[in-house]
Amino acid sequence: MNPFLEYLLHMANFFSILMWAGAILCFIAYGLAPDDPSNLYLGIVIVAIVNLSNLVEFLQNRKSKALMESFKNFIPPEITVIRSGIEKSISSIKLVQGDLIKIELGKKIPADIRIVQSNGMKVDNSSLTG
After folding, report:
1. Using an 8 Å Cβ cutoff, are 84 and 32 in contact?
2. pLDDT of residue 76
């Protein structure tokens, strides 16, 4: 999606519309009584706050989307599985509940698993904890 259009969509949420309405009312109040500039200042501040909060929300959403896209690289493309006593290599997308997974040294784990049998297994959690 076009980033400018995406930013404009962030401006269309309920809170932003409410704030825009408040800013417009401030500008109308200044137009009715131009001798008091406090309504003009308040309208300008509200517009600045709405734009700043929408910009922060937009940037955070873009960052979140990029992070979610990077998670796709964590899933291994193929895994060795034991189904009906037969060991075969399948795509990790076709993994179903009840499959026995054969984990080997250095391989990524494709899903949440329950360990049935292990021989001196160690787990490196440094990618999770930093």
Report:
1. no
2. 66
Using the structure block, give the residue that is written with the tokens 């910009």.
Answer: 55
Helix count and strand count (H, E) for the chain: 4, 3
Helix (H) or strand (E) holding 64: helix 38-71
Q: Is 120 left (phi over 0), alpha (psi -120 to 50) or beta?
A: left
Domain residue ranges of the chain, discontinuous segments joined by +: 3-73, 78-118
Q: Are 23 and 50 in contact (CB under 8 A)?
A: yes
Encode pLDDT of 19-71 as tens digits: 999 999 999 999 999 998 999 999 999 999 999 999 999 999 999 988 888 77
Which residue has 């734009």 as its token pair? 51
